[in-house]
Structures are given as C-alpha cells and as structure tokens.
Amino acid sequence: TESEIDQILDYTHQHYAQPNKAYFGKAKGKNIIIIHLESFEQFLIGLKINGVEVTPFLNKLYNDKNTLSYDNFFNEVGTGRTSDAETMLETGLFGLPTGTSVFTKLGTENTFQAAPAILAQQEGYSSAVFHGNVGSFWSRNIVYKNMGYNYFFDKSYYDTADSETNSLNGYGIKDKILFSEGVKYLEQMQQPFYTKFLTVTNHVRYQFSDDDNGDFQSTDLDDDEINNYFKTAHYLDKSIEEFFKYLDDTGLSTNSMIVLYGDHYGLDKNSAGESQHKELASGVFNQNTDNWSQFNETQYQRVPFMIHMDGLKGGIKHTYGGEIDVLPTILHLAGVNTKQYIQLGTDLLSKQHNQVVAFRKKSFITPKYTVYPNDNGNTKVYENKTGAEIPLRDNPELAMKVDKWQKDVNKKLKISDDVNNKNLLRFYTPAGFTPVDPTKYDYQNQVE
Ligand code: GP9
Ligand code: MN
C-alpha cells in the first residue's frame, strides 16, 4: 500500500496544474456558498418557452460581469447521481463505476480529505450542508461527519407543519423554503463558512402546485416529464433569485463567493426507454434527430458551472472541464495549495488545465472529439464540430492521440476506484493535514 500511494502521488504530481496567478487567493477569507442545482442542464440557460425565459435570474447571473461561467462543463456522475456530484466536489475523486455510490457503499467507513476539513484546517472555515430531504438519504448523515462537516441541516431542521412547504409526493421540502429558512441558520454561522445548499425541487417527478409558479406556461409535449421539467426549473430559478436577495439583505453577498453547478441530466429516458434528449431536440429545438447517436447524447451532458463574487473578473469561458475539476478550482481561489492532496481533476483557471473530460463509463470528450471505447476494440470517435464519426483506421495520427487519452482516462478512473475501494487515504496524510475525527460532530438527522 505504501508503494501504491507513492505511485498515485507520482501520477497526481505529474498531472498537477499550477494555479493561475491572476485568480489564486482571490476569494481568500471569503465565505463559500455552493448551490447544487438538482438535475439542471446547461441547455436551460437562455432558453425561452412560448417567448418567456425559463430561468431569467440564472441567465442574468450567467452573463454578469462578476460571474465566471462555463459553457463546456460536463457532469461526470455514475449511478450515484447527486452523491457522485458531491463526491467529486468534496473529495476530488470520482464516484464508483457500477452499483450504488461511494456515499452509501463506502462513505460511512472511509477516510476522506474533503473540502470542509481542508478549509477548516488551513483557513479556519466552519461548514454546513442544507438539504430538504431526510438526512439518511445517500447516508449523508454519516458521510458528512467523515468529511468534517460541522453541521447538516436536513429536513428535520425545517418547520414542515404546513403541508405547503412540502413536495406533494415526498421528495422533501421546496427549494424556496430551503433557502428562506436556511438563511436563518446561515446568518448565525461563524465566518468564514463553507456551505452547500442541495436543492431538490427540479428532481424528476417532484410535484408542487402550479400556484407556486406564477403565470409560467410550460411546453405541451406528449411527454409530461419534459413539460414538468421546465416548470420545476422555473421554480428553482425563482428560489435562487430569492436566495440572492436574502444574501444582499443580510450583507453576506459582499463577502461571499457563490458557486453554482448542475449535478447531472434531468432528462434521461422516457417510460418506453427512448431518449428524452432526442424528444427535446426535435420538440423544442427543432433539430433533425434521424441519426441520433452517442455523440448527440453526450452534447446534452453539459451542466452549468458558475462562480460569482463581487469584484471577480468574470466572462463566459469555453474551456472543457467537468465536476472533477471543481475542487482544485475552488481551493485555489480560496488561496489553498492542492499539490499534496490526491485529487484527480485540475483547476479550470490554470493554464495547464487538462481539457480531456472523463465520463464514468470511460468514454470522454475533448475540445475536438467525443470518444466511446468499445470492449471489442471498435472505438467510436466523433468530431465535435460536425458530429460525424471518424474511422480511426484512416487516421493513424488521431488513433495514436485517442489511444493516449484513453489510457490516461482509464488510469485516472482506476486510481480513483483504488483509493475509494481500498480506503487508501488511511495510509496517507498530507503534510499539515490532521485526519478527521467524526466523533467530534454530534448533530442529529432524520433517519428513514
Ligand atoms: C435526494 C436528492 C436527489 O436527497 O439529493 O438525489 P438523486 O436522485 O438526484 O441522486
Ligand atoms: Mn441529483
């Protein structure tokens, strides 16, 4: 195991991307507020339905001069969905290749070197998670203690006596309540704080009354899940707008960096097993979908990633990246060095950032190509510009590049799986880091 750790450190040191001097430490000492946008896909940004913007507030934020926005940012989750997005954000490691998630399968026992602990030890941050579902979902009530979270405000911390605060079909409290009630706890926290708000209303099949949505009119497609998706996205947008207003009213916005990301696709397959992205492409974007392929499906794995802070030099970046890259990006902004940690992404703002985005099933996308490996060796390569498949046998140079990228993607995923499955961080403590003692945290959560 010691030699295993050494090999892994060789890899992470070789693939380390140096912070960008123009951004390193720009958020030093600021509060960090993560907003996890449930099932929120990038195509919602700027989209109009019946001439009306679905997400007017997020559109404004996306284009704000103090927001760094990314339009080639991809979700990289596997079957662990929300919890995989959290695993990448907090630990810089991927979710598992198959079967449930790091959270439920390993997270209750494993050793982590996660964001809340790193920020607490190096920069004196307190930390908390806010979520409207029961605490035991994805074993969060235990995993967060192992990650060093000081508090976890799950559903039981909210006043749910009024049935209007809840989903009509049991997915937890509505996002507007999550934020309006949550901010009361937030105000009491010791600053600087690192906090995460996990929204839930935009989850597929979440139901709320139409009265909650003003006069917003959704699409009228055959697939009600798609019609509903725009409604819940619109509601989520309003709830974020209200939250920003609370942050302004409390003065928290002036000393906070706010990070927003979509965790994964919201549309997937309809009940007949057909791609809802394909339905969306023809029904809403009027695209010809006759030759729908893995390439098209990959195009719809984009999710938003935005960093907003007063005084931040913003703009819309076209850099390719994904969820695994968020942790080093945030830590560098906070002025924390990451070189000694085993994290598999690279700072999106670094000039050495790696633009090969690995998906959990070993396919990947680069700025120019989308690649799907195949067990029989018949790798499919698509050119992003045209969507056309490029036969590798006619392109030996490209074949060599693809082979090199694929080896690195496989290696990275393998390292992640080894670290998680063998709980390897038990055997490696970076200089200056103290292992987390979960018994120091005694918050109670709702267990179901
Ligand atoms: C549940 C919420 C949704 O608490 O985080 O999880 P998902 O189904 O997206 O993994
Ligand atoms: Mn989710």
TrEMBL record:
Q: Which residues bind Mn(2+)?
A: E38, T82, D263, H264
Task: Give a yes or no for keyword Disulfide bond in this entry.
Answer: no
The compartments listed are:
Cell membrane
Sorted alphabetically, the keyword list is: Cell membrane, Manganese, Membrane, Metal-binding, Transmembrane, Transmembrane helix
Q: Does the keyword Electron transport apply?
A: no
GO MF terms here are: metal ion binding
Pathway it works in: Cell wall biogenesis; lipoteichoic acid biosynthesis
Membrane-protein topology: Multi-pass membrane protein
Which ranges carry the Sulfatase N-terminal domain?
A: 30-336
**Catalytic site positions:** T82
Per UniProt, where does substrate bind? H203
Cellular component annotations (GO), alphabetically ordered: plasma membrane
Family in the record:
Belongs to the LTA synthase family.
Q: What is this protein called?
A: LTA synthase family protein
Q: Which organism is it from?
A: Companilactobacillus suantsaicola
